[in-house]
UniProtKB/TrEMBL annotation, chains A, B:
An example molecular function term from Gene Ontology annotations: L-serine ammonia-lyase activity
Keyword Ribonucleoprotein: no
Gene3D superfamilies: 3.40.50.1100
Cofactors that this protein relies on: pyridoxal 5'-phosphate
Listed InterPro entries: Ser/Thr_Dehydratase, TrpB-like_PALP, TrpB-like_PALP_sf
Entry keyword set: Lyase, Pyridoxal phosphate
Pfam families: PALP
Record GO biological process: isoleucine biosynthetic process; L-serine catabolic process; L-threonine catabolic process
UniProt source species: Micromonospora citrea
Name assigned to this protein: Threonine dehydratase
Domain Tryptophan synthase beta chain-like PALP, residue spans: 27-313
Domain of life: Bacteria
């Protein structure tokens, strides 16, 4: 993806996340940190869940988009272009509307219909294309044609810092509650949120982990290879975690700061979805539930006391909710039984 | 229902709700007040939703139960007995466990299985019976046999004041946000929560409304008759709103302080459930969704600017979630379309 004009030469640092949090106060929801005794029991550790599904636009992507679009609006730009599997498109569309900018968003032709509908409802021009290569080319062409800069979904310092502000709020709220995190878990698509989490955790004894769906593990392969390594996305219910390759800027941060990557399959994601729905009482999209699925795996190693998870989003089709809620009812019941 | 020992001679007043809020701080979750642009647009007013589905035990019943059981524990009682359609039983079971008291809870044989499982998981002795009359008799007999006082689900000053603290927090948070309520809406089973809301709103220009399922309208009939009037409960998906009769103490408050009652049917409750799930991203039980269903009706009269709703609980079966999420998908989609 093309980068917009003003990235710092060395990428964002912790101070950028703190500055992002200050600038976003009042623009975004200070989402609550939620807990469930049933989830704690199942994990064997304290699990603090930052409910960014309750964010404007239904995901934490609102943070980076608001920061980036706000800076472009202040710089006199009249519009923006974005490419995304969905939530970043929704967030850029909303951020542009708030500031009176035009927005063009490029999405996969098989994007989650609710995400396409939400970006459309926010007044964005919607462009759909089949392959990732086509979408990247379209994004560049539309930016060139309109003169509107691209707000990359993850390879962008404002996006990394903005997404990182969710982790910073979680870290600070956990400290305030007397239960400081020793691990912090984020699902990984392009890696912007995980990179932001690493920056937010800088200087604290918090291990940051990424979670990828099996077969969509560009970050894990990139870390092994020492450079960003694309992976043809495999089928997954986590539609938001399908970018073909981790971003260069996130990778530069993650390769040194990330503790590790956990891979989860659809079954684990679905189980986490049901825990979030029936025990925590909130609706996660599968990409958001992947974070908890990974956290449960990480907690099982027994080295942590308090694990933070950023529940990154909640934009999901009613039909998929019905399917996920109904499947494996027995398994959820057994979790409840474990509470006895 | 039998009443416990120490109700004030004139029933609770606003000061009791304020005192309840002070005593409950730290014992219960200060739940967030949530908003959804899609719900605001549909309602045509600002709708502020107090997410008590995120409360300990999954419902606002935790408040009254914690207050009442705490007082009994301080008074040296070794156990408590409660009768409930479900959430009050869960709440009393949890409150008793926290304080090391024994709990016996009496529920309908057809209570929501998740509620029975949650009360059981909290360590309570579970007793099921078919009819309301049988459950009332059992409750009295078990109280007499054990010497443990009954914590009534609504005809109890601590319960009314405790439930009222949720409304008080909503009222105060709305004022703090610069959007003070002019209406406040609660679903009505035995009337304790609505009575608490009336007390919380005392002295402020806020109209308080109750919402009952069609055919479970004991409060509406009681207001018309001028005295508590039982109604054989009709079938409803709102399992928590099936008490046969409004409580005497709530009725004494509601008959003068309540602005009105709205009746909603299962279809309206299901539509509100889907709005809460897909737009607000939280899981309501049907009884909790009934409040929003009523608020949408009340908002339609065009006299209000900011309507508060206490989303009273979120304990619901996975199978019912699946059914409600899947049904009428077209209707939810049209709501999203309306956002354009």
């Amino acid at each position: 993806m093309s980068r917009i004009d003003e990235p710092g030469p060395a990428g964002p640092v912790r101070a950028d996340v703190e500055e992002a949090a200050r600038r976003l106060a009042g623009q975004v929801v200070r989402t609550p940190v939620l807990r469930s005794p049933a989830i704690d029991r199942l994990a064997g550790v304290r699990v603090l869940i930052k409910a960014e599904n309750l964010q404007h636009g239904g995901s934490y992507k609102m943070r980076g988009a608001s920061l980036a679009v706000g800076r472009l609006a202040a710089g006199g730009h009249g519009g923006v272009v974005a490419q995304s599997t969905g939530n970043h498109a929704v967030a850029v569309a909303l951020a542009a509307r708030w500031r009176g900018l035009a927005a063009t968003v490029v999405l996969p032709a098989d994007a989650a219909p609710t995400k396409v509908a939400r970006a459309r409802a926010a007044g964005a021009r919607i462009v759909l294309a089949d392959t990732a290569a086509e979408r990247l080319a379209l994004t560049r062409e539309l930016s060139a044609a309109t003169g509107h800069p691209v707000v990359d979904a993850y390879d962008h310092p404002d996006v990394i810092a903005g997404q990182g502000s969710a982790s910073l709020e979680l870290i600070e709220d956990a400290e305030r509650a007397g239960t400081p995190l020793d691990a912090l878990v984020l699902p990984v698509g392009g890696g912007g949120g995980a990179a932001g989490a690493c920056l937010a955790a800088t200087g604290r004894p918090i291990e940051v982990y990424g979670v990828e769906p099996v077969g969509c593990d560009s970050l894990a392969r990139s870390l092994a290879a020492g450079r960003p390594t694309p992976v043809p996305p495999a089928p997954t219910i986590a539609d938001g975690l399908r970018p073909a390759c981790v971003g260069k800027l996130p990778f530069a941060i993650l390769r040194t700061a990330l503790r590790g990557v956990v891979r989860v399959d659809d079954e684990q994601i679905a189980a986490a979805f049901r825990l979030l729905l029936l025990e925590l009482k909130v609706l996660a999209e599968p990409s958001g539930a992947a974070g908890l699925a990974g956290a449960l795996r990480i907690a099982a190693d027994g080295r942590h006391h308090t694990v933070g998870v950023v529940l990154t989003g909640g934009n999901v089709e009613a039909e998929l909710v019905a399917r996920l809620a109904a499947d494996r009812f027995a398994q959820v019941t057994s979790v409840e039984g474990a509470a006895a």
